[in-house]
């Protein structure tokens, strides 16, 4: 049996899938299988797969079930002791699997190990935005108010974890990753490989750009998680919502929508008034004001200066719950 099963959900992903698969086949850890789950694609994925000359890779085709459904199929078919997820447009550094396997082998109590992430554009060029969370161990309290894993393509999980916590929720789309990580964190410690081993690709069709759906999914996740917490931890509920709105505000600023960013930032401080006194929130407010007052070229120059004040982990914008 392979040590690792790599699950790649694919829906009309041929623009990036060959490069993504190549980043897996170049891994220094070679004891793996790859399950590409063709989730009802209408592109040429089946014809392309006939050109893949590696017997560790298989194509599983099914009617469209969405991202969670495709991942759940990959989990059900997995033979590996560990499962690593990879979106069909993301890229791994060559040592990612090796370092994560070493971590899980060394620490049998750990359920999930993630890596640091950097964001790249459609061509694979780094955007300068990075996510380098230091949080590990018993992380539930930290993860419920800030998505430390950041990307579904970052995590490697013990196969046994899914027997205990169940599969990805098919009713969630953008926040399905976050929902799963909070469920695992309630049962197992986390670990982190402190290297940038994942390139997360940003493009116009990225699921995380659907802000309204993201908020709906996160609300469902929050309410599920806080139904069973001790009374003394319920204060984190408002903190979690504030973090969601703050993250969405930063996403809107990266997308050039200062009006929506302002609305989200106001919601953030309504949920957690103490947030207005944090450095990162003051920087957000400053960017919103500058974007309205200045000419675009002048604003761009000042914006880059402001963002240079922020640490890499503060500059992350992939997820509305990232530490921005």
TrEMBL record:
Q: Which CDD domains match?
A: Glyco_tranf_GTA_type (cd00761)
An example Pfam family from this entry, by short name, is: Glycos_transf_2
Molecular function (GO) terms for this protein are:
transferase activity
Show where the Glycosyltransferase 2-like domain sits.
5-165
Recorded superkingdom: Bacteria
Keywords linked to the UniProt accession: Transferase
> Which InterPro entries does the record associate with it?
Glyco_trans_2-like, Glycosyltransf_2, Nucleotide-diphossugar_trans
The record, for SUPFAM superfamilies, names: Nucleotide-diphospho-sugar transferases
Q: What is this protein called?
A: Glycosyl transferase
């Amino acid at each position: 049996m392979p040590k690792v099963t790599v699950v790649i959900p694919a829906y009309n992903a041929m623009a990036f899938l060959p490069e993504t698969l190549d980043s897996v086949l170049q891994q220094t850890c070679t004891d793996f299988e790859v399950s590409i789950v063709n989730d009802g694609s209408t592109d040429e994925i089946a014809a392309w797969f006939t050109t893949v000359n590696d017997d560790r890779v298989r194509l599983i085709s099914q009617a469209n079930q969405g991202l969670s459904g495709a991942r759940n199929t990959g989990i059900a078919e997995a033979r590996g002791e560990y499962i690593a997820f990879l979106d069909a447009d993301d890229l791994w550094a060559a040592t990612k699997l090796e370092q994560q396997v070493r971590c899980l082998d060394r620490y049998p109590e750990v359920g999930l190990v993630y890596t640091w992430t950097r964001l790249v554009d459609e061509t694979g060029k780094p955007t300068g935005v990075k996510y380098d969370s230091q949080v590990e161990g018993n992380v539930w309290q930290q993860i419920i108010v800030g998505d430390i894993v950041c990307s579904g393509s970052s995590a490697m999980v013990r196969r046994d974890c899914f027997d205990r916590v169940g599969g990805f929720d098919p009713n969630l789309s953008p926040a399905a990753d976050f929902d799963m990580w909070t469920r695992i964190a309630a049962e197992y410690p986390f670990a982190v490989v402190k290297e940038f081993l994942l390139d997360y690709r940003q493009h116009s069709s990225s699921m995380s750009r659907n802000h309204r759906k993201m908020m709906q999914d996160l609300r469902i996740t929050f309410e599920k998680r806080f139904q069973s917490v001790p009374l003394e931890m319920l204060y984190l509920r408002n903190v979690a919502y504030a973090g969601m709105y703050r993250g969405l505000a930063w996403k809107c600023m990266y997308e050039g929508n200062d009006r929506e960013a302002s609305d989200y930032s106001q919601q953030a401080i309504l949920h957690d008034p103490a947030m207005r006194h944090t450095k990162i929130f003051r920087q957000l407010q400053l960017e919103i004001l500058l974007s309205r007052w200045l000419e675009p070229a002048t604003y761009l120059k000042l914006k880059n200066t402001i963002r240079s004040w922020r640490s890499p982990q503060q500059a992350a914008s992939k997820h509305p719950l990232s530490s921005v």
